[in-house]
């Protein structure tokens, strides 16, 4: 199977160990295990039940405890509707393996995480990209989406909240996409990895609105635990059965320790997500103030997520901008070209506030020198 190199990951792999201030990171500032255990009220250095755990494969679909906790974050879903995966990246990959093949048709709303275009193409599907626009606040034109689907469309794919723009499709938009999908009996794969980072109230999950809706997510972003590499697929049992066939060849099971700590985090989700919202909401206010006072920057203010898509008024391509910033200021952004959208940079604003402040200050000094 041939597949296009993953632009964002290639960029991160090349540069994230060479920067001083990482404003390309997309996870809310990571928790230590000590911090997580403190939030959970476990004060021992190693909890007794963890110390006694035998290092077997564990429950192949994920522990009953964890699957029940994940299901509890949705409406009307049970543990039988949850398959635990190796991160959202593993979840998305398995869904495409289960649903897409030669001569299938996928509609992908872009910009998006590159999995949603590259994987179906690598599996032989035709992919129609429906491009979002800054002029429309990075929200879909549903008439264009409707015109893109055909009787051959079997998956409509999107990220909500959107990566990289931070746009958020609300209930009305989700109802519209379910109508479009239902008209051709298509699945809707909604990568909801940034769910829980809304700047306002939450929006429904696609899986609670459409019987062929699929939600993927993980503990990486809002739960600040990317190191667990723990994600999930929420959907019909028949879909999960199909995904599990592929999973047996790649994952077998997730690690029992990862499962254990993910369950611990979700059990105290009110506190963990409260911490994340405090960071993302406070930091977005800092970023918004910076954009307002910086004459060479503009953006559509994110409504959710941990990233903003910012246009910098600099006479060079986004990749060259980001390399120059790294080399001259130590600040790391992600070039829009790595996401298939030239003319923008992606700024991760969910780091610690002092890192964001210092990074943006250095960028302003650099921008002032650009003609």
Number of strands: 13
Overall spatial form: globular
Name the CATH class of the largest domain.
Alpha Beta
Question: What is the share of helical residues?
Answer: 25-40%
Structure in words:
- By secondary structure, the protein is of the alpha/beta class.
- The protein folds into 2 domains: about 120 residues, Aspartate Aminotransferase, domain 1 (Alpha-Beta Complex), CATH 3.90.1150; about 240 residues, 3-Layer(aba) Sandwich (Aspartate Aminotransferase, domain 2), CATH 3.40.640.
- Helix 5 packs parallel to helix 6 and helix 11 runs parallel beside helix 13.
- The longest helix has 25 residues.
- The protein is globular and about 60 Å long.
- The N and C termini lie far apart (about 45 Å).
Q: Any chance you could write out the topology, listing elements then pairs?
A:
Layout: H1 7-15, E1 21-22, H2 33-39, H3 48-51, H4 64-71, E2 82-85, H5 87-99, E3 105-110, H6 115-122, E4 126-131, H7 142-148, E5 153-159, H8 171-183, E6 187-191, E7 213-218, E8 231-234, H9 237-250, H10 256-267, H11 269-293, E9 297-299, E10 307-312, H12 318-329, E11 331-332, E12 334-335, E13 345-348, H13 353-368
Parallel strand pairs: 1-11, 3-4, 3-5, 5-6, 6-7
Antiparallel strand pairs: 2-8, 7-8, 9-10, 10-13, 12-13
């Amino acid at each position: 199977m041939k597949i296009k190199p993953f632009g964002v990951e290639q960029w991160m792999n090349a540069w994230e160990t060479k920067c001083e201030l990482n404003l390309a990171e997309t996870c809310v500032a990571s928790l230590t295990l000590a911090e997580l255990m403190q939030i959970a009220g476990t004060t021992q250095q190693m909890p007794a039940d963890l110390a006694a755990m035998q290092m077997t494969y564990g429950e192949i679909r994920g522990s009953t405890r964890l699957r029940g906790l994940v299901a509890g974050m949705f409406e009307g879903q049970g543990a039988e509707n949850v398959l635990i995966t190796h991160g959202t990246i593993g979840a998305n990959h398995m869904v495409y393996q289960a649903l897409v093949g030669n001569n299938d048709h996928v509609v992908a709303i872009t910009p998006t995480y590159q999995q949603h275009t590259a994987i179906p193409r690598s599996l032989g599907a035709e992919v129609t990209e429906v491009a979002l626009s800054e002029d429309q606040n990075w929200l879909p034109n549903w008439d264009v989406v409707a015109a893109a689907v055909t009787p051959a469309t079997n998956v409509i794919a999107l990220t909500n909240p959107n990566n990289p723009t931070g746009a958020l499709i609300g209930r009305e938009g989700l109802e519209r996409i379910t109508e479009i999908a239902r008209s051709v009996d298509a699945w809707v794969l909604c990568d909801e990895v940034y769910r829980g980072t809304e700047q306002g109230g939450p929006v429904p999950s696609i899986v609670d609105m459409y019987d062929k809706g699929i939600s993927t997510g993980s503990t990486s972003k809002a739960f600040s635990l990317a190191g667990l590499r723990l994600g999930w697929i929420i959907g019909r049992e028949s879909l999960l059965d199909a995904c599990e066939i592929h999973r047996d060849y790649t994952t077998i099971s997730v690690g029992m320790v990862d499962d254990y700590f993910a369950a611990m985090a979700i059990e105290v989700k009110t506190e963990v997500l409260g911490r994340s919202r405090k960071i993302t909401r406070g930091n977005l206010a800092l970023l918004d103030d910076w954009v307002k006072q910086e004459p060479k920057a503009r953006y559509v203010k994110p409504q959710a997520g941990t990233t903003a898509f910012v246009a910098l008024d600099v006479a060079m391509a986004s990749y060259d901008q980001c390399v120059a910033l790294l080399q001259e200021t130590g600040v790391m952004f992600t070039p829009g070209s790595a996401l298939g959208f030239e003319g923008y940079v992606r700024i991760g604003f969910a780091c610690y506030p002092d890192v964001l402040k210092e990074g943006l200050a250095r960028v302003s000094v650099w921008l002032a020198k650009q003609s």
